[in-house]
Amino acid sequence: MALVHVSDGESAKTALAFKAFVVMADLLGLTWDQRCLLLAVPRTTYHRWVTHGVGPTDRDKRDRLAYLLTIYHYAGTAFPGGGGAKGWLTRPNTHPTFEGIRPLDRMLKGGMEDLLAVHHVARAAEALWS
Q1: Alpha helices in the chain (DSSP H)
Q2: Alpha-carbon distance 4 to 21, whole Å?
Q3: How far apart, in whole angstroms, are the C-alpha atoms of residue 72 and residue 69?
Q4: pTM of the predicted structure, to 2 decimals
Q5: Which of 21, 24, 71, 97 has the smallest number of CB atoms closer than 10 Å to its CB?
Q6: In this structure, are residues 17 and 61 in contact, taking their beta carbons and an 8 Å threshold?
Q7: Half-sphere exposure (Cβ direction) of 17: Cα atoms closer than 13 Å
Q8: Would the CA dihedral through 76, 79, 82, 87 be positive or negative?
């Protein structure tokens, strides 16, 4: 896999975004395996990122990170009551995209298309309520 060159400014932003992801994952009570699945990385890579305070350098992983943080933001804005983003992500949902499962479970299927599907629903909800 080819790595994309990341400038120092981008590295700092990615490290900050990764720290935000860790906080979000802690709030959601995600296991390390779930975190690795969402970011599509092995445990050793995730451990290295946590230990060294860095984040992904390749585009796919940075995109995943951005989608995950944006989903959390949109959900928190759209559903400030009832548990906010955590409540929306962790409760079963009747929207056709989720078919009765939790949005988090859809994301944990692991595909980029799953993140995009949840992102689209969260973005639409945020647009509706903001």
Answers
A1: 8-28, 32-39, 43-52, 59-78, 84-90, 103-107, 112-129
A2: 21
A3: 5
A4: 0.89
A5: 97
A6: no
A7: 22
A8: negative
